[in-house]
Specification:
Length: 162
């Protein structure tokens, strides 16, 4: 059904049934038909420098769950394997949708929660620059330093649980 809803306005545009101004409005309407809650962030793998080492960050697909943007992270520290970490990222959306955040940009503050026993959650700041820039800045503050990562992202449709 969604496909049919998306195709009808596009067919009308292709057949020239709308004026240019009406086409722009119709394209906006087609984009509005996609449910914003079905959108997710896909973040490219990235790295930052700490001294002489490159610390690598891998983030799974970030998807909305119960008003939060949630995913998993892996940090790899090549010169100090004991500092490697895996955990969960939890970023409150503050009444934003993924689509709105991608379109307009914004800053989210949340937690990077390690799966290691006995650790406290680290603060994480996520700055999303609007889609035209496709840049995301992640700053993870640990007990010893703040790791600042810069990466690119895309907003895409994804199956969202709960």
């Amino acid at each position: 059904m969604r496909t049919l809803l998306l195709l009808c306005p596009l067919l009308a545009i292709c057949l020239g049934l709308f004026t240019p101004a009406a086409r722009a409005t119709e394209i906006d309407h087609v984009q509005d038909l996609v449910e914003w809650n079905d959108l997710v962030f896909d973040i490219e793998d990235t790295k930052c420098r700490v001294g002489i080492a490159s610390v690598k960050l891998f983030v799974t697909r970030l998807k909305p769950e119960n008003g939060k943007l949630v995913g998993e992270y892996t940090i790899v520290v090549p010169l100090k394997k004991s500092s490697n970490d895996k955990g969960r990222i939890v970023l409150p959306l503050n009444d934003n949708s993924v689509g709105e955040l991608g379109a307009n940009g914004g800053v989210l503050h949340g937690k990077a929660i390690s799966y290691k026993e006995g650790t406290t959650p680290n603060a994480i700041r996520c700055e999303v620059l609007p889609l035209k820039n496709k840049t995301i800045l992640l700053a993870i503050t640990t007990d010893s330093r703040t790791l600042k990562f810069k990466s690119s992202y895309k907003v895409s449709e994804g199956k969202v649980d709960g």
